[in-house]
Design goal:
about 1000 residues; alpha+beta; 29 helices; elongated; disordered N terminus; disordered C terminus
Length: about 1000
């Protein structure tokens, strides 16, 4: 075992030089300096630890030595008991080669050794059996040194002829640790894979080596190390360790012993390799089992904390680390501790500090690769920013493993050991696999948390929106409803599985036939979407449901499943009913503007058809009391019960009386038996109240211009729902519309009375004005005749003519006012007779000749010879005069054309066309209105009644007047009259 660097100057006498690569003389040497090399290996020091003197054991060693140079017989001892297993004659030194008996002994020993070494796959057992095979059969003591995965040399087995001295072999290795990077001794064997033979180790050589610092060799010499063989344990191209054989007799080992040791080492190396492979397989199996256990545990972990707890526990148990931290990486780069074991509060605070952007570039937090640091110095060299904190945490190895998920780093796994260590590839792979599984579990936990949160939001949305889900499994004949849907149906709020058709049984009888038909249709037809609305019956009444869904087909194309969602749309339906009530009530009130009170019974019927069980309408009487004007019940037979006979008194607490007295809404949302009697029932009314059984009541005032006009009262009874706040708002809006209608009706009647008074005044005034005008006209005529008889023609005659024209104009205005009053009162009478429209037109033109002359408007007539019909000649003449006068007034000195004829339908027409100023387009629709004008009254004068009266006369005759005009191009008025229309009464 000693690692001596003494080299011989000549070959040993009588022996040929070695032909193999075996070093046989590297221990006995005569160097130029004449001393022993100080670089003696720890394996040789172990050999020198045997305290067996050469003199005390020479006879025993000679009896068991194998292959001695003297050619004596060598006994190969049985490894178990020391009994000779074979006797082999030695070979004389100069002839070389053992005898046949020696070879048989060698083969028997190697066979036995192979059998023993192959009996176990446990590495310590194999190495212990190897040492027991060698001692005492081949050597006085031996040592087995193994290279660890961290490239350290460790003494794993040692044996001695005297078992009490075996601990000294281990002690020397602990005191002087073995090295794997040396150039001599065990290090050389391990590095080159070549065996070493030291036949004789002398005392002067040892003393010189001790003087140069090799104390281990001196210790081995004192224990009787005189001859050494060192052979490598090599398998599959790699050196696993070194087998050292030590003898207390100088020159005991030779070439034959070396060959035997090499063969034994080869077989031992195979067994050791198998044991290592078996150990690695068991470790791999253990890691696989642990990974499987971790996978199972992580699959059950549904939160970040649970995932971190599993990872920390498994890493703590598998790695032997004394400090473990699982950190989550936030989006902003901060670290959030999930699980921390063994770290101080200071370290914990450092984990959560904001990241240093400038210093974090390339750090493990941002890279996928793990950081493995065998010593504190390696960690500080890579992370100088954390040097101070790392030193305070203590010496030892560290590891930073990123928790790398599918897309990014989810966090970090920090590990620390109290001592330096090397990380084997298998351990690295195992920890990285754990970290990767943890990252995936964190991603799953995040997804699960997001899913849970979204599911909770969906559940809250379903609950808030009164929605539930359902599924019909047609194959198994079952119906699945969730808790929300059961709650909407008035059932226990739990998920349930019921037979198909259970929901159909809960439908309103009026809706079930339609829904059931649609349900069967969607089972027969190809898969598709559907949407239905229906009512379901609950203990508290009917509820409206809106259901949407989709049908799915199986492999054969037939529908096997229907699934969808159902929403409670009762509120929407109720809102629609309220809105429809308001629309219908407004329509009814608008149609009866003249007598709204007559429309109130219809309004009450609309109320009970849409929202209430019963409705009462009371209006204010002249004496300040309420009088009932309308009463309606949802059941038509109960209307008579609600009608209050005159004189029936109500209690002062009645909602209608309270509302009328205060002018405020009176709302009773819940009525029990006691409250009913207190509010409604007098002795006479108690049977009625008990038969109606109201559950809620509402009275709203009818107010207009600060006055309370009446009260509308609504009430509900089972099974109809009770009134709610939204019904109060609707009732107030309905009351407002009824109040406006009542007030408008009152104003309408007042306006009609005022118009009648006005028209009567105009009629009376016109008659009164006609009397002095007639007298004035007669006086003017008498004066004109007297002047003519007297022959006085002068200024007086001209002034008289002017006065006569003004009187005629005033007469025409009075006649127009009188006609307007007659039209308003419906007293315009027509006297039909055979009239020649052509001649009537010629006469009117002749009378207005002076008017056209003064207006400088040439007149062209295109009239048929005759054009007769059944008309009123005086009224028709009035129309013609109005049209001709307008043409002369607005003709602006341009020609006026008058044409007449008969069309294909035997309808007479007359056209008056001028080429004057024309009429603006926006003035045409109002041209025939009362007191309407298309031009400025300052320039043209008049009351604006001529065309109005003309249209009324023509329409009374069954005809019409049309106008066609453009500004600056004149106007064309066309009169159309039926020729033979018979009237039995005067025009209205």
């Amino acid at each position: 075992m000693p690692e001596s660097s003494i080299e011989p100057s000549t070959e040993p006498a009588g022996e040929p030089p070695p032909t193999s690569a075996v070093q046989t003389n590297d221990a006995v040497s005569a160097p130029s300096h004449g001393g022993v090399d100080a670089s003696v290996s720890a394996a040789e020091a172990v050999a020198s630890a045997v305290a067996v003197t050469h003199e005390a054991s020479s006879s025993a060693r000679e009896a068991v030595s194998l292959g001695t140079r003297g050619g004596a017989a060598v006994n190969v001892m049985d490894p178990q008991g020391g009994v000779p297993a074979a006797s082999v004659e030695g070979v004389p030194p100069r002839t070389g080669g053992p005898s046949a008996s020696a070879e048989e002994g060698r083969f028997a020993f190697l066979a036995r050794a192979g059998e023993v070494l192959a009996s176990s796959l446990d590495e310590p057992t194999v190495l212990r059996q190897l040492a027991q095979l060698v001692v005492p059969g081949l050597a006085d003591w031996c040592a087995v040194d193994v290279v660890t995965p961290s490239q350290q040399v460790v003494r794993r087995a040692a044996a001695h002829r005297d078992p009490a001295l075996a601990p000294f072999v281990y002690a020397i290795a602990e005191r002087w640790p073995l090295r794997a990077d040396g150039a001599q001794g065990v290090a050389h064997v391990l590095g080159t894979g070549l065996p070493r033979l030291i036949p004789d180790l002398s005392e002067p050589q040892v003393q010189e080596a001790v003087a140069r610092g090799n104390a281990a060799l001196g210790e081995a010499w004192r224990l009787g190390c005189r001859s050494v063989i060192q052979v490598p344990l090599e398998a599959r191209g790699r050196v696993l360790g070194c087998l050292s054989l030590i003898s207390g007799t100088a020159g005991r080992f030779g070439e034959c012993d070396l060959e035997l040791a090499r063969e034994l080492a080869r077989r031992a190396a195979l067994s050791l390799d198998n044991a290592l492979l078996y150990g690695e397989a068991r470790q791999a199996q253990a890691r696989t089992a642990r990974l499987q256990a971790v996978t199972a545990a992580l699959s059950r972990a549904a939160s970040e904390d649970a995932v971190a707890q599993v990872l920390a526990r498994e890493v703590w148990e598998a790695s032997g680390a004394t400090r473990v931290a699982v950190l989550a990486l936030e989006e902003d780069g901060r670290m959030r501790p999930l699980r921390v074991l063994g770290y101080s509060e200071e370290a914990l605070a450092s984990f959560t500090r904001p990241p240093d952007r400038s210093a974090s570039k390339g750090s493990p937090e941002l890279r996928r690769e793990a950081g493995w640091f065998s010593t504190l110095e390696e960690f500080i060299a890579c992370h100088p920013r954390d040097a101070e904190l790392a030193r305070r945490q203590g010496q030892g190895a560290r590891a930073v493993v990123p928790l790398w998920g599918e897309t990014r780093v989810r966090g970090l796994l920090l590990l620390a050991w109290p001592e330096p260590r090397v990380f084997p590839a298998a351990e690295r792979s195992f920890l990285e696999a754990l970290a990767h599984q943890c990252a995936q579990a964190l991603e799953r936990a995040a997804l699960y948390e997001a899913l849970r949160e979204r599911t909770e939001r969906l559940r809250q949305a379903l609950v808030t929106g009164d929605m539930g889900t359902w599924r019909l499994d047609l194959v198994r004949g079952r119906e699945l409803r969730d808790a929300a849907l059961n709650h909407m149906l008035g059932l226990a709020a739990v998920d349930s599985v019921v037979p198909v058709g259970d929901t159909l049984e809960r439908l309103h009888p009026e809706d079930r036939p339609h829904v059931e038909a649609e349900f069967h249709r969607f089972q027969r037809e190809a898969p598709g979407f559907f949407e239905l609305e229906f009512r379901v019956l609950r203990r508290d009444g009917a509820r409206w449901m809106h259901s949407v869904g989709q049908s799915f087909a199986g492999p054969d194309g037939k529908v096997t499943e229907l699934t969808g969602a159902m929403a409670d749309v009762t509120r929407r339906k109720e809102a629609e009913e309220r809105l429809q009530l308001l629309l219908d009530a407004s329509r009814v009130l608008a149609l009866r503007l003249d007598d709204v009170e007559e429309a109130l019974p219809q309004v009450a019927r609309l109320v009970v058809d849409h929202v209430a069980t019963g409705c009462l309408v009371d209006l204010s009487a002249p004496d300040g009391t309420l009088r009932q004007v309308a009463a309606a019940h949802r059941m038509a037979g109960h209307d008579a019960l609600l009608r209050s006979p005159p004189g029936r008194a109500r209690r002062a607490s009645h909602p209608a009386l309270q509302c009328f007295r205060t002018g405020e809404v009176c709302f009773l949302s819940r009525l029990d038996l006691q409250l009913r009697d207190e509010v409604f029932a007098t002795d006479a009314q108690r049977p009625l109240v008990q038969s109606l059984s109201p559950t809620s009541a509402l009275s709203v005032p009818l107010r207009a211009r600060g006055r309370t006009l009446g009260v509308i009262t609504l009430f509900t009874a089972d099974p109809q729902r009770t009134l709610v706040a939204a019904d109060v708002t609707m009732a107030e809006e309905l009351a407002l519309r009824v109040s406006v209608a009542l007030e408008n009706a009152r104003l309408f009647h007042d306006a009609q009375s005022a118009v009648r008074l006005r028209d009567e005044f105009l009629s009376v005034a016109s008659h009164e004005l006609k009397t002095p005008l007639t007298s004035l006209i007669l006086q003017h005529n008498l004066i004109a005749r007297a002047l003519e008889v007297a022959g006085t023609q002068g200024p007086v005659t001209g002034k008289l003519n002017t006065a006569q024209r003004q009187v005629h104009r005033l007469t025409a205005l009075v006649d127009n006012l009188l006609d307007v009053s007659r039209l308003s009162l419906g007293k315009l009478a027509l006297e039909r007779a055979e009239v020649d429209l052509a001649q009537l037109t010629r006469d009117a033109v002749e009378r207005l000749e002076d008017v056209f002359t003064q207006a400088r408007c040439p007149l062209r007539l295109e009239l048929p010879r005759t054009l007769t019909g059944q008309w009123d000649s005086l009224r028709l003449d009035q129309v013609l005069v109005n049209l001709l006068t307008n043409a002369a007034k607005y003709g602006a000195g341009h020609p006026v054309t008058v044409r007449a004829g008969v069309d294909a339908s035997d309808e007479a027409w007359l056209e008056v066309r001028d080429e004057g100023i024309g009429i603006e387009a926006d003035a045409l629709p109002r041209l025939f209105g009362r007191f309407e004008r298309a031009v400025s009254e300052r320039h043209y004068g008049g009351l604006g009644l001529g065309l109005y009266i003309s249209r009324q006369i023509v329409e009374a005759l069954g005809g019409r007047i049309d106008v066609d005009s453009q500004p600056g191009q004149g106007a064309t008025f066309t009169l159309r009259l039926p020729r033979n229309m018979t009237f039995s009464a005067a025009a209205p």
